[in-house]
Amino acid sequence: MQITPGKQLTTKKMLQYALVLLIAIVLLYFCFKGVKWSDFADGLRHCNYWWIAISMFFGVSGFILRAWRWKLLANQLNPSVTLKETYDGLTIGNLANFALPRVGELVRCGIVARKKRVTFEEAIGTVILERSWDLVCLFLFVIIMVVFSWKRFGSFIQFQMINPAENRLTKVLIIVIAAIIVLIAAAAILIYIYRDRLRKHKFHNKFVGFLKGLLHGILAAFKIKKKWLFFTLTILLWTSFWITSYTTILAFPSMNNFTITDALFLMIVGSLGWAVPVQGGIGAYHFLVSLALSEIYGIAHAEGMVFATISHESQAFIMILCGVISLISIAIEKKRAKTPDSL
Length: 343
Description:
This protein is an all-alpha fold. It has one domain. The chain has 14 helices and no strands. The chain has helices at 5-32, 37-45, 49-75, 83-97, 103-113, 120-148, 150-168, 171-193, 195-198, 202-222, 227-250, 260-275, 284-297, 301-338.
């Protein structure tokens, strides 16, 4: 039977999904390898779930703060973009990340652009700028931890994160990266030389339109009027992450000697785990956090896995719940819009 192009695309997506899911499963396998399930179950029983509930509350607060910050950027393009739209886009995007990594950023742009108040390309531009500031914040936190607590945390970052990355950067990989850069440069030159011919093709116009919309979104966001509010929301957002980390720590009696500095370190490690391109950080988060607890604090592997599992799954739960609620909310809005007024 002949496969249609649409089915080929679907098959490709399913293979990508299966690959990243397999990576997550392998990571989980190595995380739980050697863990006694009786110790794991005992750790779950001794957890104070009231503190976990508080951490989940601050997790939801983080969604609202991020949506509010994104709204400020989107309002530079169109003041009619609402907080509900950016919140729904964000939460549905989080939900989508559990299906396919990193696709959530595109999904949330599509949600905001669906009412045609901003274009999809402009929305992507605002997301790029927003995420750039988050990377800056994470980088600053890492620098602070390294500078002020090198003896305790710096060695972990050096030997468990930086060195393994350097070891993987082989000569072959360097050659591949160099070749990609050369190909991109050659493509840019060819496009410039044959620009008159390319202008006659529809693809060229669509591609240029996409780049213009993207650039428009980025530049418009830089002209934000309420800069003080944007930076305040950014600080509050990362503070909510910090508090979420600390309240999760308070849920474990064996970690009652941990300080807010320890919470900051685990927040940084956890953020790196969430950033790994697997569904919802599954496996990667558990691996990095349990490794940090074992290497830095001497926490038993089973107990570290309990902490990582509860910390990750509690936040994953509210991501999925809020995403589902937003989907239902949008479905109700669409139904009301299609239903004629009975009055």
